[in-house]
């Protein structure tokens, strides 16, 4: 069985990046901390740290151990707080992975119902590339993944796609560019600088087809997997960019960009992906049921 005292020492060193600083915080000698970590590494059969100059860096095994240790001690803290407060019903942990292609405001709209349940819920969100999120889902480190595309069968991950809704796509730009390209839209975009979704973003292929249907190829000046980064470039006036039509008011307020026109045949879909065929987690159910009544379904 793992020695959790040794794991706790490792976790503290991993957080501060220094045996000396961890020893000061724990009121122990550096030799004690170092010895305990060496014993932990020996019991696990792998190095958790490597020394780079005077610094300690986590190995790949160390990074995995840090993540797992974080969860272990977080659960321990929750247990302690629950017992001290005499809480009858412990806090429900809801871990969600959000694809970086999903706009933050839409992720909020989809997930907000989870934190309005009668029972206390702690929502823990992670943003990452879809492949990494699907891998975390496969080993049950996530309860749900919010994505703009379904789980690909070729990944070999056992999971189920639950459609949350869809909405149309529009094109935006800062006022100077919007005024220039709004007249004669969509043909006006023929030579316009365009900020395009990246190869991993589900919107890319249908948006490219839409341009082809208009008889032109977009003059792409940048490609972005991260929708927030693309909007930041758009806000700076680097080019025309696409985003869900339901975000028009938000894009005007936050990014100073105006609507140019709608890409009529392009829609983006959103999915909740879980390891459950039949949803049972209370927070997942709340997300799914609220999405059916949300503006995503109404803005088709």
UniProtKB/TrEMBL annotation:
<keyword id="KW-0010">Activator</keyword>
<dbReference type="GO" id="GO:0003677">
    <property type="term" value="F:DNA binding"/>
</dbReference>
<dbReference type="InterPro" id="IPR000847">
    <property type="entry name" value="LysR_HTH_N"/>
</dbReference>
<comment type="similarity">
    <text>Belongs to the LysR transcriptional regulatory family.</text>
</comment>
<protein>
    <submittedName>
        <fullName>Transcriptional activator NhaR</fullName>
    </submittedName>
</protein>
<dbReference type="InterPro" id="IPR036388">
    <property type="entry name" value="WH-like_DNA-bd_sf"/>
</dbReference>
<dbReference type="InterPro" id="IPR036390">
    <property type="entry name" value="WH_DNA-bd_sf"/>
</dbReference>
<keyword id="KW-0805">Transcription regulation</keyword>
<dbReference type="GO" id="GO:2000142">
    <property type="term" value="P:regulation of DNA-templated transcription initiation"/>
</dbReference>
<dbReference type="InterPro" id="IPR005119">
    <property type="entry name" value="LysR_subst-bd"/>
</dbReference>
<dbReference type="Pfam" id="PF03466">
    <property type="entry name" value="LysR_substrate"/>
</dbReference>
<feature type="domain" description="HTH lysR-type">
    <location>
        <begin position="2"/>
        <end position="59"/>
    </location>
</feature>
<keyword id="KW-0238">DNA-binding</keyword>
<keyword id="KW-0804">Transcription</keyword>
<dbReference type="Pfam" id="PF00126">
    <property type="entry name" value="HTH_1"/>
</dbReference>
<dbReference type="GO" id="GO:0003700">
    <property type="term" value="F:DNA-binding transcription factor activity"/>
</dbReference>
